[in-house]
Amino acid sequence: MAIQLSAFRWVAPFAQGYVKDLRVRWALEEAGLPYQTTLIDSQVQASGKYRQWQPFGQVPAYRDDEVDMFESGAIVLHIAARSQVLAPSDESGRARVTSWVFAALNSIEPHAQNFIHFDAAGAGEAWANRRRAQLEADLSRKLSMFSAWLGDKDYLEGRFTAGDLIMATVLRELVDCGVLAQFPTIDAYLRRCLARPAFARALEAQLAPFREPSHSEARA
Ligand SMILES: N[C@@H](CCC(=O)N[C@@H](CS)C(=O)NCC(=O)O)C(=O)O
Predict the structure, then answer these.
(1) Cα–Cα distance measured from residue 51 to residue 59, given in angstroms and rounded to the nearest whole number
(2) Residue (of 157, 161, 155, 163) closest to 191 by Cα position
(3) Which atom of ligand 1 is nearest to the CA of 59?
(4) Which of 5, 12, 173, 184 has the smallest CB count inside 10 Å?
């Protein structure tokens, strides 16, 4: 069975290029594994059949010959277990990759998302400005420690892995709010990750259906 991945047929322009199936597409491109996309809309999202595949009606969901999965981080780790491009084959190397995937999703992404959502609301009352400053301080603290870890490394564990892939998708969301300007080491690291040809192919694969309003919808 060909690998199948769910993705949205269309999303609002601000979300285009940022839907989380991008992580899985990128991993599959790095691993050189071909896949088919099941494009869904809100009707499919709400259907019992799709909820069997993705319990929260979200994207991405994934299946191959062996597994039915949801959660982008878990899916990327599954793909990494099949490709040494994304993770070393030894137990200790794989454990480091798993740690970085969780660090990105658990230790950095919540701070990044909290700040982005508050920042997007713009300046407001005094309490809101204080809260925004607090969220920025929390995020900056994490990014400072992350920057110290990176130091002069090209990638988190010396060479590109699934940990870098997930971390880059988390950090990329911070580009527009300007926070990364204070962290040139992270900014350079992010640019290095995003310069990979597999990322460009994954991004284009997500964006292509959004340019085709007449695209007929596949059912999950
Ligand atoms: N933790 C999940 C989050 C998935 C997620 O947030 N998907 C969004 C698109 S980026 C979605 O499907 N949103 C629609 C909804 O929640 O109804 C993952 O990483 O796979």
Answers:
(1) 11
(2) 155
(3) 12
(4) 12
